[in-house]
Write a structure and sequence with these properties.
Distance between the termini: 29 Å
Radius of gyration: 16 Å
Bound molecules: 1-O-pyrophosphono-5-O-phosphono-alpha-D-ribofuranose, adenine
Subcellular location: Cytoplasm
Enzyme class: transferase
Number of strands: 9
Protein name: Adenine phosphoribosyltransferase
Shape: globular
Strand order of the largest sheet: 5-6-4-3-7-8-9
Subunit structure: Homodimer.
Family: Belongs to the purine/pyrimidine phosphoribosyltransferase family.
Length: about 180
């Protein structure tokens, strides 16, 4: 049964996806379980109880699932940061480095007002490149980031250190060693 299980216990590892040598930490098994999903949302929010938050921002794609649930729980609005070319309105763009080459993420330029307090969420922190790009977009719009919450950190890839060096409060629920 589910008794005594932690968030980490619900996450499945797929070997050699999407490339040979990668241990893919698959949170769909966590999302699919009602107790696991609720536990993850509650734990992601826990450090921010009593803090003023105006909006939740989620990173495509699994950050949308978490961000939607968190925004609903807090009765807040949700703002997506999407991969290039998906948002219909006027956007700000930010490029970031991938393992091979570059990618671009975007936010609607009217999605955050200066001074709004933002909680940034995603499922997983690896190199931190995606979150760093998201932070830059939020800050370019004048948003003030209260915290960055993730389910998984892969400490060997240095994302947490990168975000903390940017002055972010980083909250993760579990770590996996091994890439
Ligand atoms: O810390 P980083 O090295 O930037 O990696 C973390 C990002 O990688 C994964 O998303 P992915 O880019 O696979 O996109 P997807 O969620 O749209 O599949 C994950 O959901 C994070 O968003
Ligand atoms: N090992 C991994 N598992 C799941 N998502 C990832 N994104 C980057 N590295 C990942």
């Amino acid at each position: 049964m589910n008794k005594g299980k932690t968030v980490k216990d619900y996450i499945r590892t797929i070997v050699d996806f999407p490339h040979e040598g990668i241990l893919f930490r698959d949170v769909t098994t966590l999302f699919a379980d009602p107790r696991g999903f609720r536990m993850a949302i509650d734990q992601m929010l826990h450090p921010y109880a009593g803090e003023q938050i105006d909006k939740v921002v989620g990173l495509e794609a699994r950050g949308f699932i978490l961000g939607g649930a968190i925004a609903h729980q807090l009765t807040l609005g949700f703002v997506p940061i999407r991969k290039k070319g998906k948002l219909p309105g006027a956007t700000l763009s930010q490029s970031y480095t991938l393992e091979y080459g570059e990618a671009v993420v975007e936010i609607h330029d009217d999605a955050i007002q200066p001074g709004e307090k933002i909680l940034l969420v995603d499922d997983l922190l690896a190199t931190g490149g995606t979150a760093e790009a998201g932070i830059k977009l939020i800050e370019r719009l004048g948003g003030e980031i209260v915290g960055c919450a993730f389910i998984v950190d892969l400490p060997e890839l240095g994302g947490r250190k990168l975000l903390e060096e940017m002055g972010m409060d980083v909250h993760v629920l579990c770590e996996f060693e091994g890439l």
